[in-house]
Write a structure and sequence with these properties.
alpha/beta, Leucine-rich repeat, LRR (right-handed beta-alpha superhelix), 11-stranded mixed β-sheet, 4 helices, binds 2-acetamido-2-deoxy-beta-D-glucopyranose, transmembrane, secreted, Leucine-rich repeat-containing N-terminal plant-type domain-containing protein, plant defense
């Protein structure tokens, strides 16, 4: 409570001093008659003073200033009306969180449940003047435009960068690789373009990289094989990524890897191993071309395997029947995939639409010709 007193705080102290010296004056000279009146007077004085508010103001003035500038630059949107000069920013109704111990602003979360067109413009540079920020969230703001603000490079404490369903455009800046505390980068459903910076692999704590549904181009960086083990979840679907999947990705053991709906080509067998503990592998709708016959699978963990719309060839290995909890499986639209569908495990749980547009045969497809 008393850790921080700014501005009017000193005024408050002098008010208390004035009240207490008034009280002691009355106490000494007219002790009996005047005491009651003085107490009432003093109490009123304290209650009417603006002081209790000033005393509990936790927000750092510099940070409040940065937030108010941010609000102004975003066009004073309705969603952050509660950001006002008069109140403690740590008490604002929406979208700001202060650390309970230090009172620094550690989180901004401007998430709308329906697309809110009222917030507009690029992410303002004043966001860089909130040096204690650990978490930034912007969600469903179609008029949030422009590039990822370069001043974000100053936010070295940032753990979570979550910007989804906006019209953020331009490239993914290399500076993200310097924000060593980042644990989550989720920039799905935006309008980002250009290549994925290889420097992201330098983030030692990254647990999830979600860049799906943008317009990213170029290859998956080979450096991604050197992410700290087991490697982050990689959600890169619905972009225009091209070229081969780097062989180095075989070093990783992510829980989820979704590279679907890109233009990736060549081998993907490095993503499969009985030694991994991956749960979801979605490679559908690419131009991948590799022999499936000798793959092994994480038999305890794998629940989702989608390879539809590629050019996977060979046949479905019997080892797939050993996967205990396969819930989604799809190899349709791989015109070269051939041979008998192994019988057993979970493989007959799926209907013909998991296997059609291939040269496969056997249940759930018609029997193989002798
Ligand atoms: C946008 O803000 C204006 C005032 O600045 C307000 O009149 C309008 O209702 C707001 N629209 C939405 C969708 O909140
Ligand atoms: C991006 O802006 C366009 C209009 O310019 C809009 O139709 C679209 O919904 C916006 N995207 C998102 C994710 O809000
Ligand atoms: C989305 O990005 C493209 C460039 O890739 C740009 O031409 C377009 O204006 C952007 N849309 C919005 C709404 O920012
Ligand atoms: C497998 O993928 C194909 C092609 O997208 C789709 O038509 C089919 O419904 C999918 N099957 C299942 C079981 O999801």
């Amino acid at each position: 409570m008393f850790r921080r007193v700014h501005g009017s705080g000193e005024l408050l102290l002098s008010q208390i001093y004035a009240v207490s010296s008034t009280l002691s004056y009355f106490a000494v000279s007219h002790w009996k008659e005047k005491m009651g009146r003085a107490l009432v007077f003093g109490l009123c004085f304290l209650l009417l003073s603006p002081f209790p508010f000033a005393f509990s103001e936790k927000c750092f003035p510099k940070e409040k200033k940065a937030l108010l500038q941010l609000k102004k630059d975003l066009g004073n949107p309705y969603i952050i009306t509660s950001w006002n000069e008069k109140e403690d920013c740590c008490e604002w109704y929406c979208c700001v969180t202060c650390d309970e111990r230090t009172n620094h602003v550690i989180s901004i979360d401007i998430s709308s449940s329906i697309p809110d067109a009222n917030l507009s413009g690029p992410i303002p540079p004043s966001i860089g003047d909130l040096p204690y920020l650990e978490s930034i969230t912007f969600h469903k703001l179609p008029n949030l435009v422009g590039p990822l603000q370069p001043a974000i490079a100053k936010l070295t404490k940032l753990k979570s960068l979550f910007i989804t369903y906006t019209n953020l455009s331009g490239p993914l800046p290399g500076f993200l690789g310097q924000l060593k505390n980042l644990e989550l980068i989720k920039l799905s459903f935006n309008n980002l373009s250009g290549p994925i910076p290889s420097s992201l692999s330098q983030l030692p704590n990254l647990g999830s990289l979600q860049l799906d549904r943008n317009k990213l181009t170029g290859p998956i960086p080979a450096s991604f094989g050197s992410f700290k083990k087991p490697g982050p979840d990689l959600m890169l679907s619905h972009n225009q990524l091209s070229g081969p999947i780097p062989a180095s990705l075989g070093n990783l053991n992510p829980d989820n890897i979704d590279l679907s709906r890109n233009k990736l080509e060549g081998d993907a067998s490095m993503l499969f191993s009985s030694k991994k503990t991956t749960q979801v592998i979605d490679l559908s709708r690419n131009k991948l071309s590799f022999d499936m016959s000798h793959l092994t699978f994480p038999k305890k963990s794998l629940i989702w395997l989608d390879l539809n719309h590629n050019n996977v060839y060979g046949n479905i290995p019997v080892s797939l029947t050993k996967v205990e909890n396969l819930q989604q499986f799809n190899v349709s639209y791989n015109p070269q995939l051939s041979g008998q569908i192994p019988q057993g495990g979970e493989l007959q749980r799926f209907d013909k639409y998991s296997y059609f547009h291939t040269k496969l045969c056997g249940s759930p497809l018609p029997p193989c010709k002798k």
